[in-house]
Design a protein that fits this description.
2 copies of one chain form a homodimer. By secondary structure, the first copy, chain A, is α+β, with helices and mostly antiparallel strands. Chain A has 2 domains: 162 residues, Pnp Oxidase, Chain A (Roll); 33 residues, no CATH class. Chain A contains 5 helices and 12 strands. The mean pLDDT of chain A is 93.
Chain lengths: 223, 223
């Protein structure tokens, strides 16, 4: 895989030693997230909304309603900034100044393209596979009306930066701080609870494999 | 408390029944989050970066380095959009089309002001209290040099919208879907693991109360 390019938009300006240009690291951040924040400029002002995401090869997919002004502007070529953040923990240094968060984040700049009708179902299945692996096989197929009501956008993972301080130390030797004060890290992670069955579900219907699998993965287990 | 105003920037256009105009709901979303995404317009394009946040009354506080181009632009009056998202779960409907995420999100529009030097320490302590409650009392005070290197910005929680589908049903009666397919929800939440002590810490130093408290709160316990 080629490295991520350093451009005026992707060169990390603050704490540049946390920048990672390995494309695999970008994929890891995107693949490890369910949601991201998508920003555009509207009437000269920034507007940023949460979206579900899924990677499809070298692109990230997002979807919305064909009735959404926000998505229609993106479909019409408005430049976007997609920000994916994984918060991994809190770093408790011996001073507030050096305290910070443990995180990985990806920032993707670009212009999205509309997935054409003939590729829309495949793209939505790829998105579904990212968000709810295995679920598509458990439910009915999408209808033509549903497909028509959905706008699927493809953003190339071309001009992107990754910042990752997951492996950084909480503190540096020789910083003059008092070592009798505790310093360290509080790791944070997302876990899944027990699935909650919808009351309309026919009694005795078991929780399906897709849900059990996501529960296990989110809770740190292996499949 | 006054309700959140409905303006062209805050009126939710998609799924407006999820909009909440109760100011307390906005505070709850902000108070329940450690990080958010802050977006600006730079050279006509959106740029959105993750930031730590803390609420101080009717404002949200963010901080950065005085050397940061991004924060300097905000300090100079660039309009911002702050997006706070709490992902609460995955909604498995009986179709992919109706499947979605369970979330709360707040979107705040405005122009931030620079916290003046004389109020900076108090503001940073408020931010610290949000991110790491009780920690400030366990570490040394901030130095003048540290304060000088830090830019603290105050964004009014004035023009803001909240969208919350936490209480929405996974499905509607009479939607014609097959009730023998399982539908329901997989709840997601952030939990804290065991604190990891920095190797430079003097042996035997106990994990302090602030860290234990955040561990307990993040893991769903009560203080």
């Amino acid at each position: 895989m080629t490295d991520l390019p350093l451009t005026p938009l992707t060169r990390v300006r603050r704490l540049p030693h946390y920048q990672v240009t390995d494309r695999a690291a970008l994929y890891e951040v995107v693949d490890g997230a369910l949601a991201a924040t998508l920003a555009i400029v509207r009437d000269g002002r920034p507007v940023a909304l949460p979206v579900g995401i899924g990677r499809d090869g070298d692109d990230v997919l997002v979807h919305g309603s064909t009735g959404s002004d926000f998505f229609r502007r993106i479909a019409a070529g408005a430049p976007v900034c997609l920000t994916v953040t994984q918060l991994l923990g809190l770093k408790y240094a011996r001073s507030l100044f050096d305290s910070s968060m443990r995180y990985r984040c990806a920032v993707v700049h670009g212009v999205a393209s509309v997935v054409p009708a003939e590729d829309k179902e495949r793209a939505l299945l790829a998105l579904s596979e990212h968000l709810m692996p295995g679920r598509a096989a458990e439910v009915r197929p999408m209808t033509g009306r549903e497909l028509a009501a959905t706008l699927v956008l493809r953003l190339p993972l071309a001009e992107a930066s990754v910042k990752d301080n997951a492996a950084s130390a909480v503190e540096e030797d020789g910083d003059g701080e008092d070592r009798t004060v505790w310093a360290g890290e509080l790791p944070l992670r997302v876990v899944a609870g027990e699935p909650v069955t919808s009351p309309q579900t026919v009694g005795g219907t078991p929780v399906p494999a897709s849900v059990r699998r996501s529960q296990l993965v989110a809770s740190g287990g292996t499949v």
